[in-house]
Each structure stands twice: as C-alpha cells, then as structure tokens.
C-alpha cells in the first residue's frame, strides 16, 4: 500500500489487479523514478523506455475502470511526464481509434500501437483555440475525391515530435462538422516543431504542428467521428484519467514531505514532531483521501455504464485543484530544499501546473458541471 492511501482504497482491487499494480509500481520505481530528474532537466524523452512500457502489457487491454485509474495514479506517482506520454498514446490516440474508428481501422492500427511499435499523438488544441476548441476549431478538412485535404495548425501536441500516427481533428468545410483523421507523423505537408522553454512536463515532447495541404485518404478518416460530440466521448474517458494522475502526483508529494519531516531536524528534533508540520501533513493526506474517494466512485460509475460528462469534469477540476494545494504545501514543508530537483518535489510542483490546465481548465470543467446541475449553459 502507498503511504498516502490512508483509507486503503487499493484494497478494493482484486488480488490479480493488485498484482498488476505492483508489477507496474516496481517497473516505475526501477526504470522511471531514478532517471526522471535527469531527463526533466534536459527536456529530453527517454526513448529507451518505450519498448519496456510495451513489456508491461497495459495498452489495449480491457480491464476494470478502477484498475485503469489506479495504473494512471501509479504513473503520476512516479512522474507526471511519463504519465502524460502514456495517457496521450494509450488514452487519447488509441482511445480515438477505439471509440471513433471502424472495426477495420481498429484492426489496422491498434495492434501495433498496443505493442508500442507505433506511437500515437492527439492533435486537437490549436494556437488560437483551447477552451473554445469545440466551436472555434480552425483547422479545416475538405474532401477531394477519395482523399481529404487538411490545412491549419495545432499546438501543445504531446508525443508529436516522434509519433508514428497523429489523430488530427479538423472542421469539414462542407458541413462545418468536426471530423477525425489518422495522419502519419511523416506525412508530406505536416511539420512538427518541438516547443521549447517549458517549465512543466519537460520530458513530454510537445510540438507545434502545421498542416499545409496534407492529403489523407478517406480510408484513414475515423469512420465514426462525425461531430465534436464524438470527440467529446474520447475526452470524457481521458479526463477521468487525468484526475487519477493528479491523485498520483499529490500522493508522491505527500510521501516526499512525510519522509522529509521524519528525517529533517530543527531545534534538536525531527520537524515531524512540530504541530504546524503535522497540520500541513494532515491537510495533504486529507486532500489525497477525498480525491481518491471521488476517483474510486467515478470508476464505479464508469463500470456501471452510467457516468456522464459532468462526473469526469468534476473529478478533473476538483482533483487537480487539490493537487495544486498539496504540492504547494509539500514544497513549503521542504522550504529551500523544495525548489531543487534533488528532493524531487520541485519537479512535481512544476508539473502540477500542466495537469491543472490540460484536458480542460478548472473553469471549463466547472461550466460543464454547472450546466448539468442548473440546466443552463454558461459558456458564452
């Protein structure tokens, strides 16, 4: 059990599921955690780990939502960048094909992606469109015989600098509906340029993408993606995963702070013996416990087939907000040591800012929930 799992939520997993979690936890502890600060500092991606992720047998496997969520938690607990890499590939890219692709398309692309022989990216956000992307999507697609021509630009596209396949969302010039396409990363007319100078998720290779007359065959258009409502089906799933990642990040921050408090001495005794330090730790573990409980219930709703957009949106908004508090308190507890990579917490503090914003800001997710509880949309 993780030290921050005070209510022993992991006990809700079956024995077989717990064994999978332990296998992933051991892999992350041996392969990811020791090198995370080094690669984060250099803003480089550890490409040698890609096939080792494949060896875990996680992608493309049907399992309970609780186990899926817990695996996202474990990855966030090790490193938010690697959690994002996996979430983009196995969640957004593969999820788009699973949700919106035809059976033939699923058979054509998913096996290689499951084996990590082909890495996926997901291109929705644009330079001028983030929160308003549903209505403000400017990348266009126009049919020309048996092909489509894509023009436009995308931004913040994770994995895009080395992705083999990029799921691109574009607005059809004929009917104004959003459609999805699977585009090779080396397609003529597609350029992916790494975004430099990031202060968060530095391991993730985010890119600016330009699409200049990129031609895509009709066979590579996702056959069940006919409007933004279909795009939203993918986001509903992955938004829940980000909530779980946020729990993993705050669990890691809490554990770092707890271990530090037990070892760090001031005034002749460990700072864990001081009341104000204990108060900080209790606030942290309280946020962890409340967020983890919400995510567990969300997983149950997913498995029951009754969860809705507002369920994922509330979890994403709430858990990332609580995460932001926890990493801040952990950094406070470590004082000056909290701003150097040596103690890990500095990386978690920085990376938390990205999780707080992507997959829908707190404000946008709040409006999704607000619409559900009031019956009135307030987006414009």
UniProtKB/TrEMBL annotation:
GO terms for molecular function: acyl-CoA dehydrogenase activity; flavin adenine dinucleotide binding. GO terms for biological process: fatty acid beta-oxidation. Residues 14-115 form the Acyl-CoA dehydrogenase/oxidase N-terminal domain. Its cofactor is FAD. Residues 121-214 form the Acyl-CoA oxidase/dehydrogenase middle domain. Residues 232-373 form the Acyl-CoA dehydrogenase/oxidase C-terminal domain. Keywords: FAD, Flavoprotein, Oxidoreductase. PANTHER family: ACYL-COA DEHYDROGENASE, ACYL-COENZYME A OXIDASE. Belongs to the acyl-CoA dehydrogenase family. This is Putative glutaryl-CoA dehydrogenase. It comes from Actinoplanes missouriensis (strain ATCC 14538 / DSM 43046 / CBS 188.64 / JCM 3121 / NBRC 102363 / NCIMB 12654 / NRRL B-3342 / UNCC 431).
